[in-house]
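Section 5: illustrative case.
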C-alpha cells in the first residue's frame, strides 16, 4: 500500500506546483513583452538643414553663365547649401540696388563689385573683412596675382576675385585688309596706330563715317589707357608714390593727353556717339582698332561670333610697354556675416569660386584671366592667339587705386568734352580734371 500512497503524494505535489509554474511563466512573458514595447524603434538620420545664401552680380551674360556653372558644381559638392543667383540687375542700376538693399539687411550675402568701388563700399559699411583663417594674407601673397593686393585696406582683406584682366589691342582683320594694311601686322607703336587708324578711316561724300579707324571713348576703357599707359609711355607717372597726389597733368601727361585727343581733333578717325559707343561699333564691324579688356572676348563670342579679329599687346612708345590691370571681386555683406551658419556657407562658396578650377572655367567662358597664379601661368593660355596678349600683360600691368572710380573717370570724360565740344584748350581742360580728382583724393585722405 505504501507505494501507492507515495505515488499519489508525488502526483498531488506536481498538480499543486503546475499552476504556480504557469503563473511564473506568464509573468515572465508579460515582462518580456513590456521590455520589447519600451525599446524605441531605430529612427533614420535626419536630413541636413539647407542653408540658403544669395549672390548678386550685374547682368553681363558671359559672367552670368560662368557663375551659373560654378554654382551648379558647388551645390553638387555641398548639397546642404543653396545659392540664389541674382544677376537680373542692369549695370547702370546695380550700385543703386546694392545701396537700397544692403543697409536694410536684405539682398545679397555675397556681392560682386569692381575693385575700384571698394573704398566707397567700405565707407558705406556694405562689406565686412574676409575671415583671416579662411583667406590668410600669406595665401593671397603667394597664390594670387599681385593685382589682388588692391583688395587689402590697411592690411585687412575685404574682397577676393575669381579672375583678373588686362587691356590689350583689338583689331579688325577684314577692315585692315580693305585699307591695304597687313592684317597679321597690327600697330606695334603709337605712331603706327595713328597712321594706320587714319588709313582705315572711310567717310562718305557727306562726311558720315563708313569705317572708323579708331574711336576715343573715355566712358569705356580709354580713361585707363590714358592714365596707366599713355602717361607712363610719355615719361610720366599718373600719381605720386604714395598715391595721394594727381600727377597725370604733368608735361608728360599733357603730351599723352594731346596724343589721345588728336584722333578726334586732328586725324578725325571716329566718333564715340556712333553705334552706341566704341565697343558696340567694334562688335558691329565698323571700327578698325579698339582698346578693351579680356572680358570682351566673351561678349564677342556671344554677340559677334563671325567677327574676324585679332588681339595684340597694346602699342608701345619710347620703348615703354604698359597696360592697365583690374578685376571684379567678391565681398561678404553685413547680412552674409550676421549668422554663423550663413557665414560658414558663404566662406565655402567664396573659396570655391576663387579656386584654380573656377579660374580655368572662367577664362574659358568669360575671357578673363585666372586670379590664381597657377591657373594663370598655363602655357596654353600664354600661347593662345586671343588670350596670350592679355596674359603677357600681367607681367607689367598697373592697377590704379581708386577712391571713387566713377567720379574719377567722369572728370576725364568732362575734360574731353570741354575740348571737343566746347573748344577749351587741352591743357586747361586736363588741369580742371586733375583738380577735380585731387579734391576727391584730399577728401578721402583728410588733407
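Designed sequence:
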Amino acid at each position: 500500500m505504501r507505494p501507492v500512497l507515495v505515488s499519489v503524494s508525488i502526483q498531488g505535489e506536481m498538480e499543486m506546483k503546475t499552476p504556480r509554474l504557469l503563473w511564473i511563466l506568464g509573468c515572465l512573458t508579460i515582462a518580456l513583452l513590456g521590455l520589447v514595447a519600451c525599446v524605441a524603434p531605430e529612427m533614420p538620420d535626419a536630413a541636413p538643414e539647407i542653408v540658403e545664401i544669395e549672390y548678386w552680380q550685374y547682368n553681363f551674360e558671359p559672367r552670368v553663365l560662368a557663375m551659373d556653372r560654378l554654382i551648379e558644381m558647388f551645390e553638387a559638392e555641398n548639397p546642404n547649401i543653396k545659392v540664389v543667383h541674382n544677376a537680373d540687375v542692369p549695370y547702370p542700376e546695380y550700385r543703386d540696388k546694392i545701396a537700397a538693399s544692403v543697409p536694410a539687411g536684405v539682398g545679397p550675402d555675397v556681392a560682386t563689385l569692381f575693385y575700384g568701388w571698394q573704398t566707397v563700399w567700405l565707407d558705406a559699411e556694405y562689406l565686412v573683412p574676409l575671415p583671416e583663417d579662411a583667406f590668410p594674407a600669406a595665401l593671397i601673397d603667394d597664390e594670387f596675382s599681385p593685382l589682388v593686393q588692391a583688395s587689402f585696406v590697411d592690411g585687412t582683406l575685404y574682397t577676393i576675385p575669381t579672375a583678373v584682366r588686362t587691356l590689350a589691342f583689338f583689331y579688325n582683320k577684314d577692315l585692315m585688309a580693305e585699307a591695304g594694311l597687313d592684317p597679321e601686322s597690327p600697330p606695334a607703336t603709337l605712331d603706327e596706330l595713328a597712321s594706320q587708324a587714319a588709313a582705315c578711316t572711310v567717310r562718305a561724300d557727306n562726311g558720315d563715317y563708313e569705317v572708323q579707324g579708331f574711336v576715343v571713348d573715355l566712358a569705356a576703357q580709354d580713361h585707363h589707357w590714358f592714365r596707366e599707359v599713355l602717361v607712363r609711355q610719355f615719361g610720366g607717372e599718373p600719381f605720386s608714390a604714395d598715391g595721394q597726389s594727381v600727377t597725370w597733368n604733368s608735361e608728360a601727361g599733357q603730351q599723352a593727353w594731346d596724343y589721345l585727343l588728336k584722333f578726334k581733333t586732328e586725324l578725325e578717325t571716329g566718333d564715340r556717339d556712333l553705334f552706341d559707343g566704341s565697343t558696340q561699333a567694334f562688335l558691329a564691324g565698323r571700327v578698325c582698332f579698339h582698346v578693351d579688356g579680356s572680358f570682351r572676348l566673351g561678349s564677342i563670342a556671344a554677340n559677334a561670333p563671325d567677327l574676324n579679329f585679332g588681339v595684340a599687346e597694346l602699342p608701345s612708345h619710347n620703348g615703354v610697354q604698359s597696360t592697365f590691370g583690374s578685376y571684379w571681386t567678391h565681398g561678404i555683406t553685413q547680412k552674409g556675416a550676421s549668422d554663423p551658419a550663413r557665414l560658414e556657407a558663404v566662406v565655402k562658396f567664396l573659396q570655391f569660386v576663387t579656386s584654380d578650377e573656377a579660374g580655368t572655367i572662367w577664362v574659358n567662358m568669360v575671357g578673363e584671366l585666372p586670379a590664381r597664379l597657377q591657373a594663370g601661368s598655363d602655357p596654353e593660355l600664354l600661347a593662345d592667339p586671343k588670350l596670350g596678349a592679355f596674359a603677357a600683360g600681367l607681367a607689367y600691368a598697373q592697377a590704379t587705386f581708386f577712391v571713387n572710380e566713377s567720379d574719377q573717370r567722369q572728370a576725364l570724360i568732362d575734360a574731353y568734352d570741354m575740348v571737343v565740344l566746347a573748344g577749351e584748350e587741352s591743357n586747361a581742360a586736363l588741369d580742371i580734371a586733375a583738380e577735380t580728382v585731387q579734391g576727391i583724393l584730399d577728401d578721402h585722405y583728410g588733407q
